[in-house]
Amino acid sequence: MQLIPCPWCGPREEAEFHYGGQAHVAYPEDPRALTDQEWARFVFFRDNPCGPFAERWSHSAGCRRWFNAVRDTRTYELLSVYRVGEPMPEVSERDEVVS
Amino acid sequence: MRADTSVRTSPLAAWTDRLADLAPALTAAERPFLTQLTVRASDPVAVARMGEALGVAFPADPCTATRGGGPFGAVEVLWLGPDEYLVVAEPDRRVPVEDALRAALRPARGAVVDTSAQRTTIALSGPHARDVLAHGCAIDLHPSAAPAGTCVQTLVARAGAVLRVDDAESGAFTLLVRSSFAEYLAAWLSDACVEYRAALS
């Protein structure tokens, strides 16, 4: 089982965590100005990269806090974790290709 | 004669004998009705003030706990999150401890909430306490990795629990488990203990 390093509690088993989707999705500045199409894009459309992806995770069985993580979607490897409010750190993308 | 309906029953009252039967491999006993208060506060000055009021400094590091004695008797403070603590005191100390914490918290923002009924406490020790826990808990409880004072929220046999290390060398632990999961965890403990009971008898 993969260990996920919670920014507060340290490495814990993956089963203690819950996934929260893409990180850094900003709420619309003027919600009333959005059309239905723009709302649909905000609510349902998310990036789907092949490589590093900034995500939200919750350490639900531990300190129950949300944090952000950069995960490589090809390898499931967590490249970096950082607290909510902190800027996304630079991660070195690895070029290995997993078949 | 009038029926007495005010008798408190702890979540593991029916398990006292079965838990006692696990000895000597595992000494497990419920410590019922402890006073438990959940404290939310992020202001470090207010947190220090609350520690002074209890006579026990609040834990500064994640996944640790402090204990000591003060005006309210023996008190333990467990770290639950970056701005969240659990204050554990002897039974029936809720009102004075809660009042003292509220007074110390002001004027900072925060909350002091009585959660005494939320969790019950199981004290574990014995030569195989660590082995039994290892069957259902991924935390490394070796003294080199989890010295006394370590306090983690994690999963024990898939049930959420707060696990505190009381004595790393002899393997004494305290499990705080939700009241509704207590019987499940007691059943799991007695099941996980079977092989060690056979080895010792």
TrEMBL record, chain A:
<protein>
    <submittedName>
        <fullName>Heterotetrameric sarcosine oxidase delta subunit</fullName>
    </submittedName>
</protein>
<dbReference type="GO" id="GO:0008115">
    <property type="term" value="F:sarcosine oxidase activity"/>
</dbReference>
<dbReference type="InterPro" id="IPR038561">
    <property type="entry name" value="SoxD_sf"/>
</dbReference>
<dbReference type="GO" id="GO:0046653">
    <property type="term" value="P:tetrahydrofolate metabolic process"/>
</dbReference>
<dbReference type="Pfam" id="PF04267">
    <property type="entry name" value="SoxD"/>
</dbReference>
<dbReference type="InterPro" id="IPR006279">
    <property type="entry name" value="SoxD"/>
</dbReference>
UniProtKB/TrEMBL annotation, chain B:
<dbReference type="InterPro" id="IPR027266">
    <property type="entry name" value="TrmE/GcvT-like"/>
</dbReference>
<protein>
    <submittedName>
        <fullName>Sarcosine oxidase subunit gamma</fullName>
        <ecNumber>1.5.3.1</ecNumber>
    </submittedName>
</protein>
<keyword id="KW-0560">Oxidoreductase</keyword>
<dbReference type="GO" id="GO:0008115">
    <property type="term" value="F:sarcosine oxidase activity"/>
</dbReference>
<dbReference type="Pfam" id="PF04268">
    <property type="entry name" value="SoxG"/>
</dbReference>
<dbReference type="InterPro" id="IPR007375">
    <property type="entry name" value="SoxG"/>
</dbReference>
